From TrEMBL:
Residues 233-478 form the EAL domain. This is Sensory transduction protein kinase. The keyword Transferase applies. GO terms for molecular function: cyclic-guanylate-specific phosphodiesterase activity; kinase activity. Gene3D superfamilies: EAL domain. InterPro entries: Cyclic-di-GMP_PDE-like, EAL_dom, EAL_sf. PROSITE patterns: EAL. The lineage of its organism: Bacteria, Pseudomonadati, Pseudomonadota, Gammaproteobacteria, Vibrionales. The keyword Isomerase does not apply. Keywords: Kinase, Transferase.
Length: 480
Protein backbone atom coordinates (compact mmCIF):
# COMPACT_ATOMS: atom_id res chain seq x y z
CA UNK A 1 0.00 0.00 0.00
CA UNK A 2 1.16 3.54 -0.79
CA UNK A 3 1.74 5.82 2.19
CA UNK A 4 -0.51 8.47 0.66
CA UNK A 5 -3.45 6.11 1.26
CA UNK A 6 -2.62 5.22 4.85
CA UNK A 7 -3.73 8.53 6.36
CA UNK A 8 -7.20 8.46 4.72
CA UNK A 9 -7.46 4.76 5.57
CA UNK A 10 -6.46 5.28 9.20
CA UNK A 11 -8.92 8.17 9.47
CA UNK A 12 -11.65 6.00 7.92
CA UNK A 13 -10.93 3.18 10.40
CA UNK A 14 -10.89 5.61 13.31
CA UNK A 15 -14.17 7.18 12.19
CA UNK A 16 -15.70 3.72 11.86
CA UNK A 17 -14.55 2.91 15.40
CA UNK A 18 -15.84 6.30 16.60
CA UNK A 19 -19.32 5.86 15.16
CA UNK A 20 -19.49 2.20 16.19
CA UNK A 21 -18.50 2.86 19.80
CA UNK A 22 -20.47 6.12 20.00
CA UNK A 23 -23.52 4.45 18.46
CA UNK A 24 -23.25 1.47 20.81
CA UNK A 25 -22.79 3.58 23.95
CA UNK A 26 -25.46 6.05 22.81
CA UNK A 27 -27.89 3.17 22.22
CA UNK A 28 -27.15 1.62 25.62
CA UNK A 29 -27.57 5.00 27.34
CA UNK A 30 -30.78 5.62 25.39
CA UNK A 31 -32.21 2.22 26.31
CA UNK A 32 -31.24 2.70 29.96
CA UNK A 33 -32.84 6.14 29.83
CA UNK A 34 -36.13 4.63 28.66
CA UNK A 35 -35.76 1.74 31.11
CA UNK A 36 -35.44 4.29 33.93
CA UNK A 37 -38.82 5.77 32.95
CA UNK A 38 -40.39 2.31 32.79
CA UNK A 39 -38.93 1.33 36.16
CA UNK A 40 -40.00 4.58 37.80
CA UNK A 41 -43.56 4.31 36.45
CA UNK A 42 -43.83 0.70 37.60
CA UNK A 43 -42.58 1.68 41.05
CA UNK A 44 -45.15 4.46 41.36
CA UNK A 45 -47.97 2.25 40.10
CA UNK A 46 -47.09 -0.62 42.40
CA UNK A 47 -46.82 1.70 45.39
CA UNK A 48 -50.38 2.86 44.77
CA UNK A 49 -51.73 -0.65 44.34
CA UNK A 50 -49.81 -2.11 47.25
CA UNK A 51 -51.52 0.26 49.66
CA UNK A 52 -54.42 -2.14 50.09
CA UNK A 53 -52.14 -5.17 50.43
CA UNK A 54 -50.22 -3.42 53.18
CA UNK A 55 -53.44 -2.46 55.05
CA UNK A 56 -55.32 -5.69 54.46
CA UNK A 57 -54.93 -6.82 58.08
CA UNK A 58 -56.20 -3.46 59.38
CA UNK A 59 -59.25 -3.75 57.10
CA UNK A 60 -60.07 -7.20 58.43
CA UNK A 61 -59.66 -6.17 62.07
CA UNK A 62 -61.77 -3.03 61.71
CA UNK A 63 -64.54 -4.49 59.55
CA UNK A 64 -64.44 -8.21 60.35
CA UNK A 65 -68.13 -8.23 61.42
CA UNK A 66 -69.27 -5.92 58.65
CA UNK A 67 -72.59 -6.75 57.01
CA UNK A 68 -74.68 -3.82 55.89
CA UNK A 69 -72.60 -0.86 57.11
CA UNK A 70 -74.17 1.51 59.60
CA UNK A 71 -73.56 5.22 59.62
CA UNK A 72 -70.35 5.02 61.65
CA UNK A 73 -68.95 2.30 59.40
CA UNK A 74 -69.88 4.29 56.31
CA UNK A 75 -67.98 7.29 57.69
CA UNK A 76 -64.97 5.07 58.45
CA UNK A 77 -64.96 3.75 54.86
CA UNK A 78 -65.24 7.30 53.50
CA UNK A 79 -62.28 8.40 55.61
CA UNK A 80 -60.18 5.53 54.24
CA UNK A 81 -60.94 6.63 50.67
CA UNK A 82 -60.10 10.25 51.52
CA UNK A 83 -56.84 9.15 53.17
CA UNK A 84 -55.54 7.29 50.11
CA UNK A 85 -55.40 9.44 46.98
CA UNK A 86 -55.13 6.38 44.72
CA UNK A 87 -58.61 5.09 45.81
CA UNK A 88 -61.78 6.25 44.10
CA UNK A 89 -64.34 4.35 46.19
CA UNK A 90 -65.05 1.30 48.37
CA UNK A 91 -68.02 -0.98 47.76
CA UNK A 92 -69.51 -3.43 50.28
CA UNK A 93 -70.84 -6.78 49.06
CA UNK A 94 -73.10 -8.80 51.33
CA UNK A 95 -74.66 -12.11 50.32
CA UNK A 96 -73.55 -11.46 46.71
CA UNK A 97 -75.26 -8.05 46.58
CA UNK A 98 -73.78 -4.60 46.48
CA UNK A 99 -75.28 -3.07 49.57
CA UNK A 100 -73.16 0.08 49.85
CA UNK A 101 -70.61 2.21 48.00
CA UNK A 102 -68.82 5.34 49.13
CA UNK A 103 -69.47 6.62 45.61
CA UNK A 104 -73.21 6.10 46.01
CA UNK A 105 -75.55 3.41 47.29
CA UNK A 106 -75.91 0.39 45.05
CA UNK A 107 -78.21 -2.56 45.29
CA UNK A 108 -77.48 -5.15 42.68
CA UNK A 109 -76.30 -8.70 42.42
CA UNK A 110 -72.63 -9.46 41.77
CA UNK A 111 -70.75 -12.40 40.34
CA UNK A 112 -70.15 -15.25 42.79
CA UNK A 113 -66.99 -17.11 43.58
CA UNK A 114 -64.32 -14.50 42.82
CA UNK A 115 -61.07 -15.11 44.69
CA UNK A 116 -59.52 -12.32 46.74
CA UNK A 117 -56.99 -10.23 44.85
CA UNK A 118 -56.57 -7.61 42.14
CA UNK A 119 -58.95 -7.47 39.17
CA UNK A 120 -59.59 -5.48 36.04
CA UNK A 121 -63.23 -5.08 35.20
CA UNK A 122 -63.38 -4.51 31.47
CA UNK A 123 -66.29 -2.06 31.60
CA UNK A 124 -67.45 0.15 34.44
CA UNK A 125 -71.20 0.73 34.66
CA UNK A 126 -70.56 4.41 35.43
CA UNK A 127 -67.92 5.37 32.84
CA UNK A 128 -67.91 2.50 30.31
CA UNK A 129 -64.13 2.39 30.82
CA UNK A 130 -62.12 -0.40 32.46
CA UNK A 131 -61.68 -0.17 36.20
CA UNK A 132 -59.12 -1.66 38.57
CA UNK A 133 -60.20 -2.94 41.97
CA UNK A 134 -59.06 -5.11 44.85
CA UNK A 135 -61.40 -7.76 46.30
CA UNK A 136 -61.08 -8.51 50.02
CA UNK A 137 -63.20 -11.09 51.95
CA UNK A 138 -63.99 -9.84 55.45
CA UNK A 139 -66.09 -12.82 56.58
CA UNK A 140 -68.18 -15.60 55.10
CA UNK A 141 -70.91 -13.26 53.90
CA UNK A 142 -69.23 -9.91 53.39
CA UNK A 143 -66.54 -8.68 51.02
CA UNK A 144 -65.36 -5.25 49.98
CA UNK A 145 -64.12 -3.95 46.66
CA UNK A 146 -61.57 -1.17 46.76
CA UNK A 147 -61.68 0.74 43.46
CA UNK A 148 -58.71 2.68 42.17
CA UNK A 149 -58.67 5.96 40.35
CA UNK A 150 -57.79 5.89 36.60
CA UNK A 151 -54.10 5.56 35.80
CA UNK A 152 -52.07 8.76 35.49
CA UNK A 153 -48.84 7.67 33.78
CA UNK A 154 -47.15 11.04 34.08
CA UNK A 155 -43.63 9.64 33.95
CA UNK A 156 -44.08 7.58 30.81
CA UNK A 157 -46.26 10.14 29.04
CA UNK A 158 -43.25 12.48 28.92
CA UNK A 159 -41.66 10.25 26.30
CA UNK A 160 -44.75 8.95 24.48
CA UNK A 161 -47.94 7.10 25.33
CA UNK A 162 -47.33 5.07 28.45
CA UNK A 163 -49.28 1.93 29.34
CA UNK A 164 -49.38 -0.90 31.87
CA UNK A 165 -49.94 -4.45 30.73
CA UNK A 166 -52.24 -6.37 33.10
CA UNK A 167 -51.91 -9.73 31.41
CA UNK A 168 -54.25 -9.48 28.43
CA UNK A 169 -55.18 -5.82 28.81
CA UNK A 170 -53.03 -2.77 28.15
CA UNK A 171 -54.25 0.39 29.85
CA UNK A 172 -52.96 3.87 29.10
CA UNK A 173 -53.59 7.10 30.99
CA UNK A 174 -57.17 7.41 32.28
CA UNK A 175 -57.59 3.64 31.77
CA UNK A 176 -57.76 3.99 28.02
CA UNK A 177 -57.65 0.52 26.44
CA UNK A 178 -54.77 0.04 24.01
CA UNK A 179 -55.08 -3.72 23.68
CA UNK A 180 -57.65 -6.22 24.96
CA UNK A 181 -57.22 -9.96 24.52
CA UNK A 182 -59.54 -11.10 27.32
CA UNK A 183 -62.95 -12.65 26.83
CA UNK A 184 -64.01 -12.42 30.50
CA UNK A 185 -65.49 -9.48 32.36
CA UNK A 186 -63.36 -9.69 35.51
CA UNK A 187 -59.69 -10.50 34.91
CA UNK A 188 -57.54 -11.28 37.93
CA UNK A 189 -53.89 -10.23 37.92
CA UNK A 190 -50.89 -10.38 40.20
CA UNK A 191 -48.83 -7.29 41.07
CA UNK A 192 -45.54 -9.05 40.29
CA UNK A 193 -46.69 -9.81 36.73
CA UNK A 194 -47.71 -6.35 35.57
CA UNK A 195 -45.40 -4.79 32.97
CA UNK A 196 -44.94 -1.11 32.14
CA UNK A 197 -44.41 -0.06 28.55
CA UNK A 198 -44.53 2.96 26.27
CA UNK A 199 -45.29 3.75 22.65
CA UNK A 200 -42.34 6.07 22.22
CA UNK A 201 -42.53 9.47 20.56
CA UNK A 202 -39.04 9.41 19.06
CA UNK A 203 -38.68 13.17 18.67
CA UNK A 204 -39.79 13.90 22.23
CA UNK A 205 -37.69 11.19 23.85
CA UNK A 206 -34.53 12.09 21.91
CA UNK A 207 -34.93 15.77 22.79
CA UNK A 208 -35.42 14.92 26.44
CA UNK A 209 -32.57 12.39 26.37
CA UNK A 210 -30.12 14.86 24.84
CA UNK A 211 -31.24 17.59 27.25
CA UNK A 212 -30.68 15.40 30.31
CA UNK A 213 -27.58 13.56 29.08
CA UNK A 214 -25.88 16.38 27.14
CA UNK A 215 -22.92 16.46 29.53
CA UNK A 216 -22.38 12.71 29.21
CA UNK A 217 -22.76 12.84 25.43
CA UNK A 218 -20.27 15.70 25.10
CA UNK A 219 -17.78 13.95 27.42
CA UNK A 220 -18.19 10.71 25.47
CA UNK A 221 -17.67 12.53 22.17
CA UNK A 222 -14.51 14.26 23.40
CA UNK A 223 -13.07 11.04 24.84
CA UNK A 224 -13.84 9.15 21.65
CA UNK A 225 -12.47 11.90 19.40
CA UNK A 226 -9.21 12.00 21.36
CA UNK A 227 -9.06 8.20 21.36
CA UNK A 228 -9.72 8.05 17.62
CA UNK A 229 -7.06 10.69 16.99
CA UNK A 230 -4.58 8.59 18.96
CA UNK A 231 -5.80 5.48 17.13
CA UNK A 232 -5.22 7.22 13.79
CA UNK A 233 -1.65 8.06 14.83
CA UNK A 234 -1.16 4.52 16.12
CA UNK A 235 -2.37 2.96 12.86
CA UNK A 236 -0.09 5.24 10.82
CA UNK A 237 2.88 4.48 13.05
CA UNK A 238 2.31 0.73 13.07
CA UNK A 239 1.83 0.74 9.30
CA UNK A 240 5.18 2.52 8.81
CA UNK A 241 6.86 0.19 11.30
CA UNK A 242 5.47 -2.80 9.42
CA UNK A 243 6.79 -1.45 6.11
CA UNK A 244 10.24 -0.82 7.58
CA UNK A 245 10.47 -4.19 9.33
CA UNK A 246 9.49 -6.02 6.14
CA UNK A 247 12.04 -4.08 4.09
CA UNK A 248 9.46 -2.31 1.92
CA UNK A 249 11.69 0.75 2.24
CA UNK A 250 14.70 -0.14 0.13
CA UNK A 251 18.24 1.20 0.02
CA UNK A 252 18.94 3.18 -3.13
CA UNK A 253 22.57 4.11 -3.71
CA UNK A 254 23.74 7.38 -5.24
CA UNK A 255 27.40 7.07 -6.25
CA UNK A 256 29.99 9.54 -5.00
CA UNK A 257 32.80 10.24 -7.50
CA UNK A 258 36.24 11.81 -7.36
CA UNK A 259 37.55 14.59 -9.63
CA UNK A 260 38.17 12.07 -12.40
CA UNK A 261 34.65 10.63 -12.23
CA UNK A 262 35.68 7.37 -10.59
CA UNK A 263 33.20 5.92 -8.13
CA UNK A 264 34.70 5.95 -4.65
CA UNK A 265 31.56 5.21 -2.68
CA UNK A 266 27.85 5.87 -2.39
CA UNK A 267 25.27 7.43 -0.14
CA UNK A 268 22.49 5.03 0.85
CA UNK A 269 19.12 6.71 0.42
CA UNK A 270 15.73 5.36 1.53
CA UNK A 271 13.17 4.70 -1.20
CA UNK A 272 9.75 3.22 -0.55
CA UNK A 273 8.65 0.68 -3.14
CA UNK A 274 4.95 -0.19 -3.10
CA UNK A 275 3.55 -3.64 -3.91
CA UNK A 276 2.78 -2.32 -7.39
CA UNK A 277 6.40 -1.28 -7.87
CA UNK A 278 5.68 2.43 -7.51
CA UNK A 279 8.37 4.66 -6.02
CA UNK A 280 7.16 6.83 -3.13
CA UNK A 281 8.82 10.25 -2.90
CA UNK A 282 11.02 10.54 0.23
CA UNK A 283 9.37 13.80 1.32
CA UNK A 284 6.15 11.82 1.87
CA UNK A 285 7.58 9.54 4.55
CA UNK A 286 11.05 10.64 5.76
CA UNK A 287 9.75 13.66 7.78
CA UNK A 288 7.12 11.42 9.38
CA UNK A 289 9.73 8.78 10.28
CA UNK A 290 11.93 11.43 11.89
CA UNK A 291 8.99 13.01 13.70
CA UNK A 292 7.86 9.66 15.14
CA UNK A 293 11.44 8.74 16.11
CA UNK A 294 11.44 5.71 13.81
CA UNK A 295 14.79 6.67 12.28
CA UNK A 296 16.70 4.01 14.30
CA UNK A 297 14.38 1.33 12.94
CA UNK A 298 14.85 2.56 9.36
CA UNK A 299 18.62 2.84 9.78
CA UNK A 300 18.76 -0.75 11.08
CA UNK A 301 16.72 -1.95 8.12
CA UNK A 302 18.97 -0.21 5.57
CA UNK A 303 22.16 -1.40 7.29
CA UNK A 304 20.82 -4.95 7.35
CA UNK A 305 19.76 -4.90 3.69
CA UNK A 306 23.16 -3.60 2.58
CA UNK A 307 24.96 -6.15 4.73
CA UNK A 308 23.01 -9.01 3.14
CA UNK A 309 23.50 -7.75 -0.43
CA UNK A 310 26.32 -8.43 -2.88
CA UNK A 311 27.34 -4.75 -2.82
CA UNK A 312 29.94 -5.59 -0.19
CA UNK A 313 31.81 -7.95 -2.48
CA UNK A 314 35.28 -6.43 -2.90
CA UNK A 315 34.08 -3.17 -1.31
CA UNK A 316 36.82 -2.78 1.27
CA UNK A 317 37.87 0.62 -0.09
CA UNK A 318 34.32 1.80 -0.78
CA UNK A 319 32.77 4.54 1.33
CA UNK A 320 29.17 3.72 2.13
CA UNK A 321 27.31 6.57 3.83
CA UNK A 322 24.13 6.16 5.87
CA UNK A 323 21.96 9.02 7.10
CA UNK A 324 21.06 8.93 10.78
CA UNK A 325 20.10 11.09 13.73
CA UNK A 326 21.65 11.37 17.16
CA UNK A 327 18.95 9.00 18.47
CA UNK A 328 20.22 6.23 16.17
CA UNK A 329 23.69 6.45 17.67
CA UNK A 330 22.37 5.10 20.98
CA UNK A 331 20.35 2.26 19.46
CA UNK A 332 22.17 -1.02 20.31
CA UNK A 333 21.10 -2.68 17.07
CA UNK A 334 22.45 0.22 14.98
CA UNK A 335 25.76 -0.11 16.82
CA UNK A 336 25.92 -3.88 16.28
CA UNK A 337 25.10 -3.62 12.56
CA UNK A 338 27.53 -0.73 12.07
CA UNK A 339 30.33 -2.68 13.73
CA UNK A 340 29.61 -5.65 11.49
CA UNK A 341 29.30 -3.61 8.29
CA UNK A 342 32.49 -1.63 9.01
CA UNK A 343 34.46 -4.87 8.57
CA UNK A 344 33.53 -4.95 4.87
CA UNK A 345 33.65 -1.29 3.77
CA UNK A 346 34.52 2.22 4.88
CA UNK A 347 31.35 3.02 6.80
CA UNK A 348 30.38 6.68 7.10
CA UNK A 349 27.47 7.77 9.29
CA UNK A 350 25.98 11.11 8.23
CA UNK A 351 24.12 13.20 10.78
CA UNK A 352 21.18 14.85 9.05
CA UNK A 353 20.37 18.51 9.44
CA UNK A 354 16.74 17.83 10.40
CA UNK A 355 17.29 17.11 14.11
CA UNK A 356 19.59 18.76 16.67
CA UNK A 357 22.16 17.17 18.95
CA UNK A 358 20.84 17.25 22.51
CA UNK A 359 22.83 14.63 24.44
CA UNK A 360 26.04 15.53 26.20
CA UNK A 361 27.47 12.03 25.83
CA UNK A 362 27.24 12.03 22.00
CA UNK A 363 31.00 12.72 21.46
CA UNK A 364 31.82 9.77 23.74
CA UNK A 365 29.45 7.52 21.84
CA UNK A 366 30.93 8.59 18.51
CA UNK A 367 34.34 7.59 19.82
CA UNK A 368 33.02 4.09 20.61
CA UNK A 369 31.97 3.75 16.97
CA UNK A 370 35.33 5.08 15.77
CA UNK A 371 37.11 2.22 17.54
CA UNK A 372 35.58 -0.06 14.88
CA UNK A 373 36.58 2.10 11.93
CA UNK A 374 33.34 4.04 11.56
CA UNK A 375 33.69 7.59 10.22
CA UNK A 376 31.30 10.52 10.61
CA UNK A 377 29.98 13.24 8.35
CA UNK A 378 27.80 16.27 8.89
CA UNK A 379 25.17 16.37 6.15
CA UNK A 380 23.84 19.47 4.36
CA UNK A 381 26.22 21.77 6.19
CA UNK A 382 24.88 25.28 6.73
CA UNK A 383 21.20 24.32 6.70
CA UNK A 384 18.77 23.18 9.39
CA UNK A 385 20.57 22.16 12.57
CA UNK A 386 23.94 21.66 10.82
CA UNK A 387 25.37 24.73 12.51
CA UNK A 388 29.07 25.73 12.53
CA UNK A 389 29.37 25.25 16.30
CA UNK A 390 28.96 21.49 15.76
CA UNK A 391 32.41 21.50 14.17
CA UNK A 392 33.98 22.62 17.44
CA UNK A 393 31.99 20.30 19.73
CA UNK A 394 32.04 17.10 17.68
CA UNK A 395 34.68 15.35 15.65
CA UNK A 396 33.73 14.79 12.00
CA UNK A 397 35.65 13.34 9.07
CA UNK A 398 33.51 14.70 6.22
CA UNK A 399 31.52 17.82 5.61
CA UNK A 400 28.86 17.75 2.89
CA UNK A 401 27.97 21.01 1.15
CA UNK A 402 24.22 21.31 0.74
CA UNK A 403 22.60 21.46 -2.69
CA UNK A 404 21.16 24.94 -2.07
CA UNK A 405 24.66 26.46 -2.18
CA UNK A 406 25.48 24.55 -5.36
CA UNK A 407 22.25 25.69 -7.06
CA UNK A 408 23.11 29.33 -6.39
CA UNK A 409 26.27 29.01 -8.46
CA UNK A 410 24.07 29.46 -11.53
CA UNK A 411 22.10 32.53 -10.37
CA UNK A 412 24.39 34.25 -7.89
CA UNK A 413 27.80 32.98 -8.81
CA UNK A 414 29.98 35.54 -7.07
CA UNK A 415 28.39 35.35 -3.60
CA UNK A 416 27.94 31.58 -3.77
CA UNK A 417 31.56 31.14 -4.82
CA UNK A 418 32.75 33.22 -1.86
CA UNK A 419 30.55 31.23 0.49
CA UNK A 420 31.81 27.88 -0.79
CA UNK A 421 35.39 29.18 -0.67
CA UNK A 422 34.92 29.95 3.02
CA UNK A 423 33.58 26.42 3.62
CA UNK A 424 36.57 24.94 1.75
CA UNK A 425 38.95 27.08 3.80
CA UNK A 426 37.24 26.02 7.04
CA UNK A 427 37.36 22.34 6.06
CA UNK A 428 41.09 22.50 5.33
CA UNK A 429 41.81 24.16 8.65
CA UNK A 430 39.76 21.51 10.49
CA UNK A 431 41.18 18.67 8.39
CA UNK A 432 37.77 17.67 6.97
CA UNK A 433 37.09 16.10 3.58
CA UNK A 434 34.45 17.90 1.53
CA UNK A 435 31.69 16.32 -0.56
CA UNK A 436 29.57 18.56 -2.80
CA UNK A 437 25.97 17.37 -3.18
CA UNK A 438 23.31 18.06 -5.79
CA UNK A 439 25.57 18.78 -8.79
CA UNK A 440 23.50 18.91 -11.96
CA UNK A 441 25.56 20.86 -14.51
CA UNK A 442 29.10 20.76 -15.90
CA UNK A 443 29.49 24.43 -14.97
CA UNK A 444 28.81 23.68 -11.30
CA UNK A 445 31.30 20.80 -11.34
CA UNK A 446 33.97 22.94 -13.02
CA UNK A 447 33.66 25.77 -10.48
CA UNK A 448 33.76 23.34 -7.55
CA UNK A 449 36.88 21.67 -8.91
CA UNK A 450 38.64 25.03 -9.18
CA UNK A 451 37.75 25.64 -5.54
CA UNK A 452 39.59 22.48 -4.53
CA UNK A 453 36.71 20.12 -3.81
CA UNK A 454 37.63 16.45 -4.38
CA UNK A 455 34.37 14.49 -4.09
CA UNK A 456 31.08 15.01 -5.90
CA UNK A 457 27.56 13.67 -5.82
CA UNK A 458 24.61 14.56 -8.02
CA UNK A 459 22.46 13.85 -11.07
CA UNK A 460 25.26 15.08 -13.37
CA UNK A 461 27.11 11.91 -12.51
CA UNK A 462 24.56 9.35 -11.31
CA UNK A 463 21.02 9.23 -10.04
CA UNK A 464 20.14 7.06 -7.04
CA UNK A 465 19.79 3.43 -8.14
CA UNK A 466 18.66 0.17 -6.64
CA UNK A 467 21.13 -2.41 -5.35
CA UNK A 468 21.30 -4.59 -8.44
CA UNK A 469 21.93 -1.66 -10.76
CA UNK A 470 24.66 -0.30 -8.49
CA UNK A 471 26.34 -3.71 -8.26
CA UNK A 472 26.33 -3.98 -12.05
CA UNK A 473 27.72 -0.44 -12.33
CA UNK A 474 30.69 -0.96 -10.01
CA UNK A 475 31.43 -4.33 -11.62
CA UNK A 476 32.01 -2.53 -14.92
CA UNK A 477 33.95 0.43 -13.54
CA UNK A 478 37.57 0.52 -12.55
CA UNK A 479 38.44 -0.06 -8.97
CA UNK A 480 38.80 3.19 -7.06
Amino acid sequence: MNIKYIKPLSIAISLLVFFTVFGTVFTIMYQNFIHTFLTEERRISLEELRVVKEEELAFKQQFSTLAIPDENQQQALTKIVAKHKCMSSIGVIHNNYFVYSTYGKRDRKVKKGLEPGFYIKQKSMLTSNPVIYYLLHLNDKTSIRIYFKPLTLEVLDRIGEGYINFGGIQLATNNKILKNKLNIVHSRFDLDNIVTGVNIDRVSVIKLFIKRKLGYICSLSIILLVSCYLLTKKIEREFIRYQIRHHRIKPYLQPIVDRDGHIIGAEILARWITNKGELVAPYLFIPYIEQEKLTPLLTCSLLDQIYNSNVLNNAKAFKLSFNLTELCLFEPKVYALSKRLAQHCRLVLEFTESTPFIRKDTPKKMQVYRQHGVEFAIDDYGTGFSAPHYLTEYKFDYLKIDKCFIDNLNDNKEKSTHLIESIVFLAKKLNLELVAEGIETDNQAAILKTLGIRYFQGFLFYKPMYLKAFSQLIAKSDKP
